[in-house]
Amino acid sequence: MSLHHLDIFVSGLVNNGFSPALNYVQKNQLAITLPGNDTYLFDDVKELSVLDNNILKQAQNESFTNNLYIKNSELFGSLLLMSGDMRRSNLNLYSNDKILSLYNNFIALITQAPLIRIQLTGIDACWSKNSPLKRALLAKAENEVQYKEWARVISHFSGESVAKTEQMDFLLLVKQFYNNISVKKLLVNNKNKEAYKLIQTKYKKLENALLNHISKYEWISSEYTGQGWDAIRWLAEISKFLKVDPSVKIKEIKTDENNKTKAKQKLLKELKLNKEALRIIDALDCFSAIRDWSKGYFVRALLDYRFLLSEISERLKINFNDLLYFNITEVRNILETGKYNKSELKNRKNNGVAILLNNGHKKFYTKAGEINKIKNIDVVNDVFVKKEALKEFSGRTGYPGIIKGKVKIVLNSKDIKTVDKGDILVTYMTTMEFTPVFKKISALITDEGGISSHAAIISREFRIPCIVGSKVATRVLKNGDIVEVNAEKGIVKILG
After folding, report:
1. pLDDT for 155-208, tens place per residue?
2. What is the per-residue DSSP string for 137-176?
3. Edge-to-edge strand list for the sheet holding 392-394
């Protein structure tokens, strides 16, 4: 993540924009972005514990989930309305004052609340030690194994997540291409450009279906600073799924989803949980529902924001990527004065940047000595130290299964495109932009995350063996390692 976008994220933490639906303000965090845009976030554990307890308390309000759904829609509705206008406007016709005003208004909207943080903290809170749900399950479970299995079943969200919805929409789109023999033949032979020309000239209905899918999901592959896939890139993705009738996979997914939903309903009926625990389940479903869609809307707004940043870049004769090395206040100052510190820009390119949010106040560190000193702090250092060679390590089961395969390590969104079919994906944690990769990996291992993390939930939806919360996977494994992922027991063995 670039410094500019990281500053947007951090700045939103201190603003209570979700109130009164949910009172949430986070005043402390350390964020580090290194050359190559590798980004690491470190929270104040004590503060998170207080936030967890506050969320649990507020979740007992019977109108909590409804109010949160509404507030989330309001916040993103206003943001996307503005960003959409930004995308459609001829910004080159705007005066400098109007560009500055547009910039200020957009920054105010996108930092008015922790737009993509409360969902993650909310999910963690639902499984924290003081959660009525966790306490109720532990009281009824015969052992830890049974508790974990119940938690896995209850964590299933039966609504429309980004991954499930995009997967189904994608397969329905693939089905249209599968049924068109002429286009299918070209795509199977990797003649994507020729196929697109044929679609444009002869199959308008198919072209519209493709463009509608791109419009709806372009943000999935873009992360925070990148650009979405174009039509040719989407055709390349579609071509990988044309060997088998997608109707088979569609039926399989629907059956699996139905079985998981029934299993959850049956378990809840058998457990007869108390009212407090059931309200936490409602909150858990709510946080799960809005998590990836919120991230998607956030990234969509940032895609639109690129049009404004591009205009600023052209007007001030500053490279677009260089502009992203400046925080939100600095970009405002550059707009007002037309000047920026070139030596400071060089510092940030070479060293990266750390943002320390301390009691609601931000401080930026950009010198090599400062960055290294921060990286050597005890609670931070462990992430950057390469672990000694291990033969095996463990984590928590996200989705059961046993698989052997080749490791592919992805440390940032730019590496996602290197993942091949059948790879075992190893990463710090997964986020929404990993969604296309889930269609082709054979297993997943993450450093961070629990049973309700993005990786665990999406692996269950795609039925991929998954181990989360290993703490060390990205530092023990290397590209090409052959490993056995035993997600039945939560163990990874290095075979060679």
Report:
1. 888 777 777 888 899 999 999 999 999 999 999 999 999 999 999 999 999 999
2. HHHH-SSHHHHHHHHHHHT---S--HHHHHHHHHHHHHHH
3. 392-394, 491-494, 482-486, 402-410, 424-427, 443-446, 466-468, 396-399
- Which three-class secondary structure state does DSSP give residue 34? strand
Phi, psi (deg, nearest 5) at residue 390:
-120, 150
Distance between CA 154 and CA 235 in Å, rounded?
37
Residue among 220, 50, 26 nearest 114 (CA): 26
Alpha helix ranges (H) inside 272-319: 275-316
Q: Which architecture, in CATH terms, is 392-494? A: 3-Layer(bba) Sandwich (3.50)
* Cβ 176 vs Cβ 209: under 8 Å: yes
- Distance between start and end Cα atoms, the chain: 33
CA distances in angstroms from 341 to 92, 100, 317, 334, 455, listed in the order given: 25, 20, 14, 10, 40
CA–CA gap between residue 77 and residue 88 (Å, rounded): 16
- For residue 131, the SS3 value is coil
Chain-centre distance for alpha carbon 475: 21
Mind listing the pLDDT tens digit for each residue in 268-297?
A: 999 999 999 999 999 999 998 898 789 889
Q: Please name the helix (run of DSSP H) or strand (run of DSSP E) that holds residue 462, with its range, or none.
A: helix 454-462
Flag the least confident range among 22-26, 151-155, 161-165, 361-365.
Answer: 161-165
Cα gap 254→349, rounded to integer Å: 47
Neighbours of 270 (CB within 10 A): 10
Q: How many helices (H) and strands (E) does the chain have?
A: 21, 12
Token pair belonging to 301: 């707004």
Give me the phi and psi of 161, to 5 degrees please: -80, 165
Could you tell me if 291 and 123 are in contact, meaning their C-beta atoms sit under 8 angstroms apart?
A: yes
Domain-by-domain residue ranges, the chain? 3-126+276-358, 392-494
Check: CB of residue 425 under 8 Å from CB of residue 432.
Answer: no
Contact between residue 76 and residue 451 where contact means Cβ atoms under 8 Å apart = no
C-alpha span between 195 and 182 (Å, rounded): 8
| 426 close to 362: Cβ distance less than 8 angstroms | no
Tokens matching residue 161: 């997540």
| Phi, psi (degrees; rounded to nearest 5) at 364 | -105, 140
